[in-house]
Design brief:
mainly beta, Phosphatidylethanolamine-binding Protein, protein kinase inhibitor, PEBP, YbhB/YbcL family Raf kinase inhibitor-like protein, PEBP-like_sf, protein kinase inhibitor activity
């Protein structure tokens, strides 16, 4: 576990996001890729990877998770998953929690306009894309935000309520 040194050491370890399924900048499994018969680049099972976090900032009441491909759509980006309203008592999500059936997650809109996880579908002519998972600790009550927010709406709604964030990168390509 990484810890701070110097004056910040009194604050304890960093807020961290990890996955038992891949290391930071590691490869996502094929099952984590998107599933869409209409798109030949979607070769997976659309299963969200398990995530775990630790050492949240003081005052955290809820979390938001974003999965974004900044290289997608030729650099315009692709939102693959927005999950928020996750109670501060929760410290992990199991594999597949992004399918909409996991209690305690409010879904925002992904690239397809859905409130669920949609896995990577990078073009076969590209190298692996970098999928950035970000967890944001907030001082908002878990039920403070309405379902179906877009990423800009979610970030605006969190605004000054953000307490801190941690990230993790998973790569996927053909």
């Amino acid at each position: 576990m990484t810890t701070l040194s110097g004056p910040a050491a009194a604050q304890g370890p960093f807020f961290q996001l990890s996955s038992p399924a891949f290391t930071d900048n590691g490869l996502l499994a094929k099952k984590n890729a998107g599933k869409n018969p209409a798109n030949p680049n979607c070769v997976g099972e659309n299963v969200s990877p398990p995530l775990a976090w630790s050492n949240p900032p003081a005052g955290t009441r809820s979390y938001a998770i974003l999965m974004h491909d900044q290289e997608g759509r030729n650099g315009l980006g692709v939102v693959h998953w927005l999950a928020y309203g996750i109670d501060a008592a929760v410290t992990s999500l199991p594999e597949g929690a992004g399918d909409g059936s996991f209690k305690g997650i409010t879904g925002g809109k992904n690239i397809l306009g859905q409130g669920t996880y949609f896995g990577p579908c990078p073009p076969k002519t590209h190298g692996p894309h970098h999928y950035v998972f970000t967890i944001i600790a907030t001082d908002l009550a878990p039920d403070a935000l309405q379902p179906g927010l877009t990423m800009p709406q979610l970030l605006e709604a969190i605004g000054t309520h953000a307490k801190g964030a941690a990230g993790l990168i998973g790569r996927f390509g053909h």
